């Protein structure tokens, strides 16, 4: 099947590449991973980014048709759910919204690329019982959502990006310091890693497309 070579990266602030102000960058910055993805894939594709900071998956569903599907993309990496989790939305409810977008993409003959939500990082969270319980609860819900995302991808034969796994500390499950901008958003290195993971899925698909 010949697909469009438009890649539309869709999501919230993690797709927009938001970074909070730091001492080195007092005004903050945005480093959309789509920019890195474009450089990794070259001019064989056009990469566009559609990410809105603070957006929950229900809001993503509302704009998905207009902002993504009407452009006729061939490939759609979808990353959402972090903000929902922050509002204590249940993983199954978040997943219903994600599935809506996955299924709409497939119905158009395009390929969704599900992306799991990354972990969070809270310094010194293990120093009190309350801190341990708080971080444990957040990690459990992220794990539940990410398992639902992986299960869906497996059931449809889709390649997915496990952003949680590649950016989390093995020993704590928290977002690794080198990838953590503010405990929630990624550093430039984190966004570059996300782009590399998406590129690793797309490169063989695009090679197959070019040779067909």
Summarize the structure in words.
The chain is built from 8 helices and 6 strands; from the N terminus they run βαββαβαβααβααα. The strands form 2 sheets. It has a 4-stranded parallel beta sheet with strand order 4-1-5-6, sandwiched between helices. Strands 2-3 form a two-stranded antiparallel sheet. The protein has a single domain, classed as Rossmann fold (3-Layer(aba) Sandwich), CATH 3.40.50. The mean pLDDT is 93. With 212 residues, the chain is an alpha/beta fold. It has helices spanning 13-16, 33-41, 57-67, 82-86, 91-107, 129-156, 163-167, 188-211, and strands at residues 6-11, 18-19, 29-30, 46-51, 75-79, 111-114. Helix 2 packs parallel to helix 8 (188-211).
Ends: how far apart? Answer: 9 Å
Low-confidence stretches: none
Supply the helix-strand structural class: alpha/beta
Major sheet: 4 strands, parallel
Strand proportion, as a percent range, falls in 5-15%
Classify the helix fraction into a percent range.
Answer: 40-55%
3D shape:
globular
User: What's the tally of helices?
Assistant: 8
CATH architecture: 3-Layer(aba) Sandwich
CATH topology: Rossmann fold
How many separate structural domains? 1
User: What is the CATH first-level class name?
Assistant: Alpha Beta
Query: How do the helices and strands follow one another from N- to C-terminus?
Result: EHEEHEHEHHEHHH
- Find the CATH superfamily: SGNH hydrolase
Mean pLDDT: 93
């Amino acid at each position: 099947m010949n697909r469009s070579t438009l890649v539309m990266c869709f999501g919230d602030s993690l797709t927009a590449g938001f970074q909070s102000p730091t001492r080195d960058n007092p005004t903050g910055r945005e480093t959309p991973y789509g920019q890195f993805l474009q450089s990794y894939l070259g001019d064989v594709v056009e990469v566009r980014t559609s990410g809105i900071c603070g957006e929950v998956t229900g809001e993503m569903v509302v704009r998905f048709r207009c902002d993504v599907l009407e452009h006729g993309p061939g490939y759609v990496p979808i990353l959402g759910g972090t903000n929902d989790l922050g509002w204590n939305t249940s993983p199954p409810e978040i997943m219903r919204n994600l599935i809506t977008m996955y299924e709409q993409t497939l119905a158009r003959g395009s390929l969704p690329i599900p992306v799991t939500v990354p972990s969070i990082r809270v310094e010194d969270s293990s120093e009190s019982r309350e801190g341990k319980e708080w971080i444990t609860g957040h990690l459990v819900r992220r794990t539940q959502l990410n398992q639902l995302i992986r299960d869906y991808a497996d059931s449809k034969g889709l390649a997915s990006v496990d952003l949680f796994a590649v950016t989390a500390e093995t020993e704590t499950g928290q977002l690794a310091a080198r990838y953590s901008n503010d405990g929630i958003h990624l550093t430039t290195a984190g966004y570059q890693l996300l782009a590399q993971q998406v590129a690793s899925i797309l490169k063989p698909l695009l090679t197959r497309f070019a040779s067909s």
